Task: structure prediction
Amino acid sequence: MDVEKLRLAVYAGFTETGRAPAVPDLSDRLNAGEADVLSGLRALHRGRHLVLNVTGTRVLIAHPFSDVPLGFSAMGRDTLWWGGCAWDAFALPHLLPGEPEVLVATRCPGCGAALAWNVGTDAPPEGGHVAHFLVPVPRMWDDVMRTCGNQRLYCGERCVTDWLERRGETPGYTMDLGTLWRLAAHWYEGRLEAGYRRREPAEAAAYFTQVGLTGPFWGLED
Result:
């Protein structure tokens, strides 16, 4: 099984339909046996190219796409995608061909207010809202669903504090919309193309610094 062709087929399915292709669909697309497809998907999961369910039979996430709702929708001209988190939802217009702007919608976990932005590729959306990431970068792959489910957008820092107090959680990292947009803008660059290579830790650290992120939360020195 050519796992790179399989990875591209998963991303093509997400791009075209907004949902992850099932194993039979991937088998037909690649003219491969379902057992080989499953083996390839599990290899991609181990390589952190995508996230499978606990039985290893269904694609849940292929960043920045999600097959399950985790708090964000992103509406293009004809297709609705689930954004896996605030980071991923803001990344979608930068990655999707022919979609220079998407309508990102969510609810503030702090107060429940409906929030929405037209997120494009030229400049960040305006507003005093903030993003809060609960899980630090060095721990994000320990439990990807928890990580993604807790990268959310809030009305402001008061709502972040209220949510943390209700949940009994330790504060993570809070950023404004401009920083979130810069973080998302080029992080997934090349992921829809053959030969994509995940960033090494030093490359990731350099990217975080470039977009204005600091501190040990991001695996950086103070």
